[in-house]
Amino acid sequence: MHVTKAVVPAAGLGTRLYPVTRSQPKEMLPLGTRPAIQGAAEEIEGAGITDVLLITSAAKRAVEDHFDPRQSPGQSADDDSSPLTARYYCTRQAEPRGLGDAVLHARGFVGDNHFLVALGDCVLISDEPSGPVKRMVQAHAQFEADATICVQTVNAAGTSRYGIVEPGDGLADGVIALTDIVEKPGPEAAPSRLAVAARYIFSPRIFELLEEVQPGYGEEIQLTDAIRAMIAEGRRVLAIPLQPGEHRLDVGNFNSYGRAFMRSILTDREYGPDLREYAAELVQYLADDSQPDPDAPREES
Ligand code: UTP
After folding, report:
1. Residue 266: CB within 6 Å of ligand 1?
2. Whole-prediction pTM value?
3. CA proximity to 159, closest of 183, 179, 176, 180
């Protein structure tokens, strides 16, 4: 089973980033030298995706324009060769009725295929480019799963921010069968500390289940509820945990965005070395203002 199609939901309101996202999509905020959603696109193309449906809205024209083939999405100041080679299509979600509703918009595009869902406001980084999604694709085929979800270990607060899975048997190294999943349960009710990490693979069965689920947490159509129904009908749903050194860079709120941007720019091949030096000096100065202010004018050495 080959996974070549992906759906990238990018139609959410991004209210946690107001006022920054009042008139611009959060998915277009930079992570280092590229918009977050381009990072997600490069990541999934690296795992074999050739056709991508972007779920947008009237407020997300900048996303649609960014992937316009005439605009060369990968373009940097001194390089006009785009690193993106997949075909990109757009469809609009009329109302932001939740992630499940966004995915449902991909039904015609996906047809009878298994497909990837990659949230457009997150990038998974790994020493091996596209490592987590490649492992998901591999396990999904090997164990003939109906859903395969990337997960990460979170602290107690994280159980109130993400869908949390209930792990069952380990099927192989780094492959866990799931027995349940709950949307943002909070630390008391959380069945584990393993949180859904922005990447999913599904069989088309997910669409029938999404048609049936009622609005759940936040009055939205929750993808988590359809996955739960999938587990309840005895289908195989897997989790692939992020490994040490692999991280989710998440644009969702100012704290996660600040960290994600810093990590991206500080590890950038071109700008990282200078900016790491600057960051170290700035941190010293902020802790002790008798230290040199790195933004004060200085004589060139
Ligand atoms: P979030 O729940 O993080 O996004 O959705 P949000 O609703 O935009 O955020 P806040 O809570 O208002 O700040 C994760 C991903 O799913 C997309 C978002 O664009 C984001 O990439 N999404 C969410 C949709 O495409 N449609 C929706 O109805 C909801």
Report:
1. no
2. 0.94
3. 183
